[in-house]
Amino acid sequence: MWVSAPTGNLEWTDGICWPACAQDCFAIGAALPGRQQVHHARCAIVDLLAVAPATSSSNAYAAGCSQLLREAIEKANYDWQREANNLPAAMMKIFQRTGTPLLDSATGLTFRELNVAAAIDEVFDKK
Questions:
Q1: Per-residue pLDDT tens for 49-66?
Q2: Which of 19, 106, 119, 125 is paired with 8 by a 20 to 30 Å CA distance?
Q3: Residue 101 belongs to domain with CATH number
Q4: Contact partners, residue 76, CB within 8 Å, separation at least 6
Q5: Alpha carbon separation from 12 to 26, 40, 107 (Å, rounded)
Q6: CA atoms within 13 A of residue 127's CA, in its CB half-sphere
Q7: In the predicted model, is pLDDT for residue 26 greater than 60?
């Protein structure tokens, strides 16, 4: 099972909220729909962005996309163990690698915006 957490709907640029900062919990941030712009709480430990008006929505989007990727991994017989020690961490690496880079002018950090189609394509292309 994949557990993820939104980073918070505050405009913080130097930290994130609990539970996103908890150990073994993925910090899911938000990017403005249609604008490829990072918004709300974000810092260097944000794992991934999802397109959403709020981080609670980004969390739901990331969770749904993780279910699609998990099914693709199974159908493609993808060797996820070469990515990480557990399936959730392997899936996050795939999402990060295939995500669209977004530079955040407020922090100077580059985040990855989730691209589920690219993640699924990679899983099937590397079969």
A1: 999 988 788 888 999 999
A2: 119
A3: 3.40.50.200
A4: 123, 124, 127
A5: 18, 6, 10
A6: 10
A7: yes
Collapsing DSSP to helix, strand or coil, 3 comes out as coil
Q: Give CA–CA dist 77/84, Å, rounded.
A: 16
Helix (H, G, I), strand (E, B), or coil: what is residue 19? coil
Q: Give counts: helices (H), strands (E), the chain.
A: 3, 6
Q: Could you tell me where the beta strands, DSSP code E, fall in the chain?
A: 4-6, 26-32, 37-39, 48-51, 100-103, 110-113
* Containing structural domain, residue 65: 4-125
Q: Assess whether pLDDT exceeds 50 at residue 124.
A: yes
Judged on CB neighbours under 10 Å (0-12, 13-18, 19+), 115 is middle
Residue 3: count other Cβ atoms within 10 Å of its Cβ.
12
Quote the pTM value: 0.91
Look at residues 21, 8, 32, 25 and name the one whose alpha carbon lies nearest to residue 104: 32
The domain tally of the chain equals 1
